[in-house]
Design goal:
Layout: E1 2-3, E2 14-15, E3 27-32, E4 38-42, E5 45-49, E6 54-57, E7 65-66, E8 74-78, E9 82-86, E10 90-95, E11 100-102, H1 112-118, H2 136-144, E12 151-156, E13 162-166, E14 171-175, E15 178-184, E16 191-196, E17 199-203, E18 208-212, E19 217-223, E20 229-234, E21 240-244, E22 247-252, E23 255-259, E24 272-276, E25 284-288, E26 292-297, E27 302-305
Antiparallel strand pairs: 1-2, 3-4, 4-5, 5-6, 7-10, 8-9, 9-10, 10-11, 12-13, 13-14, 14-15, 16-17, 17-18, 18-19, 20-21, 21-22, 22-23, 24-25, 25-26, 26-27
Length: 322
């Protein structure tokens, strides 16, 4: 298990093994719980990290749900507190507020995404996060019945509905409690995130749009010269960050800011693949050109590269998310 925190003014690399309490050195999943503890799933079970050591988190055997078919490691957030976990043979339901495993009941199995998760599909959105750029297998299974094209992005609204964007067939809306509600003919959608109670920020091939989920229409074009969006995320402060070929965009309180090579020192290229954060010091972790990782101080307009700091990043491996 390697940790690249970059949380302090001086970045460092730490290495944790069974000496620090990991059940086994074979790590498959790392997740942060709402209480800020780190949960690690290994082949040998689960461990909680308190900043210094790992403590075992045991699941009683009677609370492990046997899978009907051979699965794989994955996780699924249900709301802000329930976390589904899976290995090759069992699924587990963790109450993250009490940090205890729950028995799985029939009511838990009624949700469509839970059924798909237990049947082997993979979808792992963050807790309390409206963005969900991945989970391609689940999206494809949801869209298959409608003969819709492959999804590019999705997010949840404040009522639990799922908005799915596609490149060539617009936007689909779906809820657990009803059939597919509607289909909106907006094409070229590559990224989306919730920008307000009834607003979605949509990123396309050439523009950024605000879509009103009540009026079911585009209410504003924020940026008409945005070039090919790759990712969108909503942070804990309610800001929406959109990564695109033309830079990193931040939407906050009705205002749109753009960070690019022309206004950020140290940023030689404007092409952004994803951004995550903010970190405790306010900086954003950004990836540009698929393999350059760095910290962007938007207040100072300063980009600090990390590829030369950590040897593991010098090989220019392709990065997809953080």
């Amino acid at each position: 298990l390697l940790c690249l925190p970059a949380l302090l003014s001086r970045a460092y690399l730490a290495h944790f093994t069974t000496r620090e309490g990991l059940s086994t050195p074979e790590v498959w999943q790392i997740m942060q719980l709402p209480n800020r503890q780190i949960l690690v799933q290994t082949v040998g079970g689960f461990s909680l990290f308190d900043g210094g050591r790992f403590e075992p988190l045991l699941c009683p055997s009677e609370r492990a749900w046997p899978l009907k078919q051979f699965g794989g490691y994955a996780h699924l957030w249900q709301g802000d507190s329930l976390l589904w976990l899976r290995d090759y043979y069992h699924a587990y339901l963790l109450d993250t507020r009490r940090v205890a495993f729950l028995p799985v009941s029939a009511s838990h199995l009624k949700r469509t995404e839970v059924k798909a998760f237990l049947n082997g599909h993979t979808v792992s959105p963050a807790a309390g996060d409206s963005r969900q750029p991945h989970g391609q297998q689940l999206l494809d299974s949801l869209l298959k019945e409608r003969n819709a094209p492959q999804a590019t992005c999705m997010c949840r609204d404040h009522e639990g509905g799922i908005w799915v964007g596609t490149l060539t067939d617009g936007i689909y809306y779906w809820r657990d409690t009803s059939p597919w509600a509607a289909h909106y003919p907006l094409t070229g959608i590559r990224a989306m995130a919730r920008a307000g109670e009834d607003l979605l920020l949509l990123g396309g091939e050439h523009d950024l749009l605000l879509f009103d989920t009540r009026q079911l229409r585009v209410v504003s074009t924020l940026q008409a010269d945005c070039v090919r969006c790759h990712d969108a995320m909503r942070d804990a402060q309610g800001r929406v960050w959109v990564s695109a070929e033309s830079g990193l965009y931040c939407y906050e309180d009705g205002r749109l800011s753009r960070y690019h090579a022309g206004n950020c020192q140290g940023l030689l290229h404007s092409q952004m693949r994803f951004a995550r954060g903010p970190l405790p010091d306010g900086r954003m972790l950004v990836c540009k050109l698929q393999h350059y990782l760095g910290l962007l101080d938007t207040a100072k307009g300063l980009f600090t590269p990390l590829n030369t700091t950590f040897r593991q990043l010098e090989s220019h491996r392709l990065l997809t998310d953080a």
